[in-house]
Specification:
The complex is a heterodimer of chains A (304) and B (164). With 304 residues, chain A is an alpha+beta fold. Chain A has three helices and 16 strands. The longest helix of chain A has 24 residues. Chain A is extended. Classes of the chains: A alpha+beta (304), B mainly alpha (164).
Chain lengths: 304, 164
């Protein structure tokens, strides 16, 4: 039996939607204004003043780190937050992004040089552990993960380009030979510098994923490169989140430990600058799949 | 938005006037029925007025209002399903277009979609919002919006296959 796949064009969809469409008019506006004119509003309750919000954001970020540290420390580990902007491991350079332009500056105090300023906007720059390579995300509409080598004069030479979209910043493996990131499909991918791609299964023991694997916020490698921590959300509403810790295996049944948490609002990571950054300490170097399961009593405060 | 949240009804009137057309077009495209859409939009704006003082981030007003409109559409559909008011064909396609069979099938397929899927298709294909703008409006990563948009479209095509 053959099945014909139906395809509908953008024009057909637009035509159908236009046919369903009605316009707002003055009479509806008047009805709404009349209905709300004497309608009392609910009280605001306690709301932070704008000047309090910066302090609250700082507090929330501290609590987030503390919550992640707590979760991992329960398994005998601590958290080291990553510095951003990113220093080159040789200690000579710092890269940072301002308004989508990638700047490179050296620690001797020279003027920052824009090294990539004529293309699509840049996000998430990160040096490889040996400082030879720089990975970043390029473009907003069709983002791609790009890896370049920086010459002595800071001129980039492209080494690798991956067009799987992006949902989390690329993270270097400790040996600098692989990059992990969540693609636009919400799946975690591991790319080797030779261009080989592996989909990384984020599922607990038994292979049943507790989450709809869309909406990965961020990920981090263990220091020995044997595993990964992935922070993500579940379901269409994005109301539940998971911290998943998995051994690095590319089969579909990867053994993982899952910490489940709930947050009350939608996806907190609409801005890349506020992505939470799970990090593994060096003391977890020998850690692979932990059998300890820690249940977070609530989603880290900055998500609420 | 801050003034309206503080009880200034004139400020609220300006907000409504600037957004009512977009809201009615969205709701009517989602529901396929002008009367239901007007009810949903009216309820949404009344709810927005009542709850506006509780909106913590005034910069998210449009996303918040859009969510209320979509939720009211969901309520209307629920009520409609309960009362079995499903005779939409006479209302739909009453504008400039000839009711050709392809469009009728596509319309019926659209009726089979979930509200959130309809909303994404309306934002993208009717209001021509780029994915990045949709992501900002919906508070989701760009990749997630792309993926859900793709799934909504596939759901529409599958529903269309079922129609035929």
């Amino acid at each position: 039996m053959s099945v014909t796949r139906v395809h509908c064009s953008d024009e057909q969809i637009e035509q159908m939607l236009r046919a369903r469409c009605a316009e707002g008019d003055r009479s509806l506006l008047e009805v709404i204004l009349a209905a709300t004119k004497d309608q009392p509003q609910r009280s605001a309750g306690w709301l932070p003043r704008p000047e309090d919000r910066r302090l609250l954001t700082l507090l929330a970020a501290t609590l987030l780190l503390a919550a992640l540290a707590g979760a991992i420390a329960l398994a005998g580990r601590t958290v080291i937050p990553a510095p951003e902007p990113q220093p080159g491991p040789e200690g000579g350079w710092i890269v940072y992004v301002d308004n989508g332009v990638l700047y490179l500056t050296d620690l001797s105090g020279g003027e920052p040089e824009p090294i990539l300023n004529d293309g699509p906007s840049i996000q998430c720059p990160a040096f490889s552990p040996d400082g030879r390579l720089l990975a970043y995300v390029e473009g907003e509409q069709e983002p791609e993960v790009v890896v370049v080598a920086l010459g002595v004069d800071g001129v980039p030479e492209e080494q690798l380009r991956i067009d799987l979209g992006y949902e989390s910043c690329p993270r270097w493996s400790p040996d600098g030979r692989s990059l992990a990131f969540a693609g636009g499909d919400g799946q975690v991918w591991v790319a080797s510098l030779s261009g080989e791609m592996h989909k990384f299964a984020v599922c607990p023991r038994g292979g049943v994923c507790p989450w709809n694997p869309m909406g990965v916020f961020d990920l981090a490698w263990t220091y020995d490169g044997s595993g990964m921590v992935v922070l993500g959300t579940t379901g269409l509403t994005g109301k539940e989140g998971y911290v998943v810790w998995c051994r690095l295996r590319t089969e579909t049944r990867a053994p993982c430990t899952t910490w489940r948490a709930t947050h009350r609002r939608g996806n907190p990571c609409s801005s890349s600058s506020h992505r939470p950054l799970p990090r593994m300490s060096r003391s977890s170097a020998s850690a692979s799949a932990a059998s300890t399961t820690v249940r977070l009593s609530s989603w880290p405060a900055s998500f609420a | 938005v801050e003034l309206a949240g503080g009880g200034d009804h004139d400020a609220f009137a300006s907000l409504v006037e600037a957004r009512i057309d977009h809201a009615v077009r969205t709701a009517s495209a989602i529901l396929g029925n002008e009367a239901d859409a007007r009810d949903a939009v009216q309820e949404a704006f009344v709810s927005a007025w009542v709850n506006l003082p509780r909106l913590r981030d005034v910069g998210r007003f449009d996303a918040w209002l859009s969510r209320i409109v979509v939720n009211r559409c969901r309520d209307v559909l629920r009520r409609r399903r309960r009362s079995r008011e499903l005779a939409l064909d006479s209302v739909i396609l009453s504008h400039d277009l000839e009711p050709d069979s392809d469009l009728t099938d596509l319309n019926a397929a659209f009726e089979a979609l979930e509200i959130d899927e309809r909303h994404l298709l309306v934002l993208h294909h009717l209001h021509h919002q780029p994915v990045a703008e949709m992501a900002a409006r919906l508070g989701m990563p760009v990749g997630t919006v792309k993926w859900r948009l793709y799934r909504a479209r596939r759901a529409l095509e599958r529903a269309l296959e079922a129609e035929r």
